[in-house]
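Hey, quick one: can you model this chain's 3D structure?
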Amino acid sequence: MPTTFDQLADSVLAGTPPTPADALAALQAADDDLLPLVAAAGRLRRAHFGNTVKVNYLVNLKSGLCPEDCGYCSQRLGSGADILKYTWLKTDEAIEQATAGLRGGATRVCMVSSGRGPTDRDVERVAGMVGALKAEHPGVEVCACLGLLKDGQAERLREAGVDAYNHNINTAESHHDDIVTTHTYADRVDTVERAQGAGLSACSGLIAGLGESDEQLVEAVFALRDLGSDSIPVNFLMPFDGTPLEGTWELSPARCLKILAMARFVCPDKEIRVAGGREMHLRSLQGLALHVANSIFLGDYLTSEGQAAEADLELIRDNGFVVLGAEDAAMSAGGHDPSIRRRGAGTEFAPNA
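Sure thing. Here's the predicted structure for all 353 residues.
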């Protein structure tokens, strides 16, 4: 086993896969070793993805009212979370939403709907949306996320122009039944394999902060590697009020960085996306996360608000990266006029403290 994270990076770059013990060591690194850990994982990120960041944009086609009981989800059966609930967007509404993300710099649009899985009619509806989107934006990459797939549905989506299919395993198999009972871990794996069998790129990731152990986080990431997930969204639990996991706060910014670094060591050449919860949990360390991950969502998520899209683009620029597909774009972050202080000492207004 390598004795330093830099040596582990050397070993991985030379073609030796890390062991679960190596991954656990990264996850359990002392906070004093956080920067060396990020630097070592960053070498792998740079070797495979250079200074690019892939920007993705979510379009929530149908929100809420899901019959599944996933304990982390604001759209779950019985959820009391105060979220938007609506049935399917019309095609022109979906295209309008997607176009906003593409104007902001996204190259992949993720078209998502709540529910256990699509009917064949739902698949045809999404196929029409994808066709219309690609007619208007020929270069766009489309990822669909519609739940558990049945026979022939992945093939129909591929035929319609869908490039990838997202279905997260969410957690380790050994932890799965603690967070959901209405479907099995095997159901999730089956859908990923159906997508792959139809020629769709597999997008499957996890949610950290669900009460899992360190060993279970490692188990989940190795499962994603073995499953052949091309794109791995790493979500950090947002404990919505009105869900079974409300009030669950297990993550710190340093912990999130260690999770991302561990994922990078195990899956050095895969797209690792900092997904839901990054603003909430990484906070001021979001920039460091980009030195390990190579992909983010732009703006808002399915049922929660993200930071402003321009702030996301500034985050990318300020950390020396460029948006994938726009490598020649000017890197200047622009200027901000200094704001004159008109509060605090010498004024009748409260200080900014």
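One thing worth noting: The chain has a mean pLDDT of 92.
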